[in-house]
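User: My collaborator and I are trying to settle a disagreement about how two of our proteins should look. Neither of us wants to argue from intuition anymore, so we agreed to look at predicted structures for both before our next call. Could you fold the first one, then the second, and keep them clearly separated?

Assistant: That sounds like a sensible way to settle it. I'll keep them separate. The first protein:
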Amino acid sequence: MEIRWLGHDSFFLKAGRKVLYIDPWKVSGEKADLILVTHDHFDHYSKTDIEALYKNGTRVFVGAGGGDYEKVRPGMKFESNGISIETVSAYNVTKFRAPGKPFHPKDYGGVGYILTLDGKRIYHSGDTDMIPEMRSIKGIDIAMFPVSGTYVMTVDEAFDAAMIIRPKFVIPMHYGSIVGTEEDAKRFLSLCSQNSIDSYGKHS
């Protein structure tokens, strides 16, 4: 299995001949069998990128919106192109655009995804804070957490989430484009490695 962070929250995953993208934004590459979008903010839901990666038979799933594509909401379990997919909640509890108005409200319907790919359970948390629902997420091999703060978890909050979920490997995301720096990613990985969680990919 191949996993590549493509910047911000975008990932490329490949197992055998299956090609999957999560939140493709400002990316290019192989045509997709499956595209998963966590929510419809511009830096996650890019029709330009989706159309560039689309081929006959590509399926596209979008949380919190979706336009012409297949819509998903938290709490779904289904299979597409031989890949098992679960959708989980992703929302803010401490990040607000104005008093009482979170950037990603719970009722907005944004999602994270848990995939079973090549025998591994992979969790992409989406744009979220550390939320109570994370306590029910079990058996994760690889987890992708945002680390930039402002709109999503801070480094320390992402580390706390990792300690709750206890994946075997972590990958930091949501940094380097809009908010957050590579130093945020490195500090997150350092905290995880000190507590027996390894990193996977760019900073390994």
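The second protein, kept apart from the first:
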Amino acid sequence: MLRTKLRTLIRDTTGFDVHKYEPGQTAVTDIKRLIGRDKPVLFDVGANIGQTIDDLLAAFPRSEVHAFEPGEKAFGILSERHSQTAILNHCGVGSAEQDHRLFFESAGTVMSSFLPIGAEGWGAEGIQQSVAVTTVDAYCSRKGIDHIDLLKTDVQGYDLEVLKGANRMLSERRVSLIYIEINFAEMYEGQARADEILRFIFDHGLRLVAFYKMHMLNGKAGWVEALFA
């Protein structure tokens, strides 16, 4: 009772809320706790050069990782680093199987997107190239995958299209966790709003676990990573 009153007092007088600190709690530790088995099937959509794969393999050394990266430069580095540890796919992922224009970041690999840079984005767009795009549902059908333990997507504003392309798997409750980047700032033209992404996920029966790594932009929320189960 005293703890509740103290928490209420702090919230009402300072605007801050107080929660118990869990040392070492990250998205990966929550993913490991929620999956609870050592040989999960993990999808990394927008794998870039394998940063997330490194973390997932450290948590699940025996996992089956399916990685998707359409960028030519990024996929080259990804292949050098993870050709023996993951199933690599040199393609994009979206809501339909098609060829789609990709805007390559001229100075690096991180900001390449299927969408043009928006009003609050940055970086110079380099080469535009048509790349192959698949869907989660079509890929799973071809590969005989009947369950995904984790669907991670970080595709620079195109994430709702990835989820739409997983509609069958999600509707049939064949995806346990979604780990996604959600933009609040207009980083890319035509990107889905945060509420559209949340509604789609909630409508498919998943609940929010937590937000991680909130990034600020001009004093406001820019983007955040979120985990749903």
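Some points you might bring to the call about the second protein. The chain has a mean pLDDT of 90. The chain has eight helices and ten strands.
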